[in-house]
Amino acid sequence: MDILHNQLTNIQRHLAFVATAPINWICYVQVFSWTVALFESYLLLRQYPLYSKKEPPAALASHFGPGVFEKSQNYGKDKAKFALFSGLFKQVLDSSMLQFGFYSWSWGASGALIGKFGFGSEYQIIQSIVFVFTLFFLSSIPTLPLSVYATFVLEEKHGFNKTTPTLFVTDLLKGWALAFGLGAPFIAAFLYIFQWAGDRFVPWLMAFMISFQLVMVVLYPTVIQPLFNKLSPLADGNLRTRVEYLASKLKFPLKHLYEIDGSKRSSHSNAYFFGLPWAKHIVIFDTLIQQSKPEEVEAVLAHELGHWYHMHPTKMMAISQLHIFTILALFPAFLHAPPLLRSFGYPKAVAANPPTIVAFLLFQMILTPLEAFVSIGMNAVSRHYEYEADRFAVELQDQLREPSMRDMGERLGRALVALHVKNLSTVWVDWLYSAYHHSHPTLTERLKGLEAFQARREKKAM
Fold first, then answer.
1. Burial, 195: exposed, middle or buried (Cβ in 10 Å; 0-12, 13-18, 19+)?
2. Residues that constitute the known binding site for Zn(2+)
3. 346 class by beta-carbon count within 10 Å (0-12 exposed, 13-18 middle, 19+ buried)
4. In a domain, 311, yes or no
5. CA nearest to 351, candidates 13, 16, 19, 15
6. If you average pLDDT over residues 71-93, what whole number do you get?
7. 82 domain-assigned
8. Distance between CA atoms of 418 and 293, rounded to whole angstroms?
9. Tell me, what's the pLDDT at 306?
10. Nearest CA-CA partner of 388 in 329, 317, 440
11. Helical (H) or strand (E) element with 254
12. Backbone angles phi and psi of 229, in degrees to 5
């Protein structure tokens, strides 16, 4: 442990200038956040002309019925327009809040609010919780019209919305209640670790965050998910038999097999698994069951089990923990930096002894532009894992010695095409836009990959 702390101390020595140098941090954040926002707008403008194509890629032409490709293009065009407007609107909002001192005002307002209940500035954790939720609620109000438009205009126009106004409001209130119910204790524990461990908080905070994630794995299916959707045991039949047999052959620790009422809110479809290493749950959207044949759904789940087989969730979690560790290792230099808070308009009295939550918020703002580059790398890793899971499905017949699974790759290809067609997904995608935004390869890329995997498998069998 001492070796770790010594290395962390060395990092802080190299960042000592943060606490003394007169850096205009607010200007840095404004310039680079606008750079990211304008770059994302540029990517949308690169993608937008592709929505004017009149024909799908040749490999997909036979899968689109009359008028379906046109609907897909129109849906993509409307989403791009909305994304361009909403992205710039949110950037103007964030930039304005930053420039006009909204964050420093919120800290003062939270202190005044708890003061009315007899709590002074020494109750920093309580003030921090009030501060965070003041920011959360007040900053979310201006973006509510965007959510309303996306649900009741954009998705409604293209036939996907199933959410009623009552359900929308109910979901919103549940989300806020959940944010407070989980967020308040999380923030309290997060800040208590700083108070207890001092500058040696990094390993303890890492241990806490990993533990919190494991707790959420248990809480999500049992407490959180039922607040929004109904999970029912998948009915007996061909699909259940196929999935249970596949899971048993792979020794996948299947505990529950659910159907979820995704159609309650949208006609989009999906399937996923979650759980602890020894008890996994598979969830299939009712829309997927309605839109695809049992053998195609089985192929989609074969792909998902490929992620489990190759330990992709565990690997991604390890990468994310390394990322979080890097962030926390840099933070101490910003935690004790009065010039940082002064640059963002905080009073001298507050900046002299920076509140942990305020310093961490500003630190995150400084890192946000750099996170855009990190996301590209994470997408590249995720895409590699998607190809690996596709190859797993193709080669499943060899691994399990099951002739009935010899066409799993073809079934997966048909399922992917059907999902894209039913969901009106974009099939013409700019490479740079995709690299920045997409964690999955495009449909044409995946179909070519499946063909290559199948050809390689057949070559080995000869």
1. exposed
2. 303, 307, 386
3. buried
4. no
5. 19
6. 95
7. no
8. 10
9. 93
10. 440
11. strand 254-260
12. -140, 155
Which residues sit in the known binding site? 303, 307, 386
Q: Catalytic residue at 304?
A: yes
Which stretches does DSSP call E strand in 100-230? Answer: none
Q: What is the DSSP letter of 230?
A: -
Q: Which of 29-33, 41-45, 223-227 has the lowest mean pLDDT?
A: 223-227
Distance CA 371, CA 113 (A): 34
> 286-301, pLDDT tens digit by residue?
888 888 888 888 999 9
**Six token digits for residue 104:** 């420093």
Residue with tokens 């792979």: 250
Q: Say whether 390 is catalytic.
A: yes
DSSP string, 398-425: HHHT-GGGTTHHHHHHHHHHHHHHHTT-
Read off the amino acid at residue 287: T
User: Looking at 40, 259, 286, 304, which residue is catalytic?
Assistant: 304
- 134: Cβ–Cβ under 8 A, 6 or more apart, which residues? 106, 109, 110, 113
Considering the candidates 296, 390, 395, 430, report the single residue annotated as catalytic.
390
* Sign of the alpha-carbon torsion through 236, 239, 241, 244: negative
Neighbours of 222 (CB within 10 A): 8
Q: Above 90 in pLDDT, residue 13?
A: no
Domain that holds residue 272: 229-286
Which position has the token pair 């003061």? Answer: 115
Amino acid 159: pLDDT: 86
User: What is the model's pLDDT at position 458?
Assistant: 75
Alpha carbons 428 and 434: distance in angstroms, whole number = 10
275: nearest Cα among 214, 186, 233, 207: 214
- Tally the domains of the chain: 1
Q: Which residue has the tokens 């920011």?
A: 135
What's the CATH code of the domain at 253? 3.30.2010.10
- How far from 79 is each of 321, 340, 421, CA to CA, in Å? 33, 38, 16
CA dihedral 83, 88, 94, 97 (to 10 degrees): -140
Reading the block at residue 438, the tokens are: 């997409």
Query: Which region, left, alpha or beta, applies to residue 198 given φ > 0 means left and ψ of -120 to 50 means alpha?
Result: left
User: Is residue 271 included in any domain, yes or no?
Assistant: yes
Indicate the helix (H) or strand (E) that contains 274.
strand 271-276
**Is 340 within the bounds of a domain?**
no
List pLDDT tens digits, range 193-214. 988 988 788 889 989 988 898 8
Structure tokens at 182: 């989980």
Strand partners, 284: 259, 271
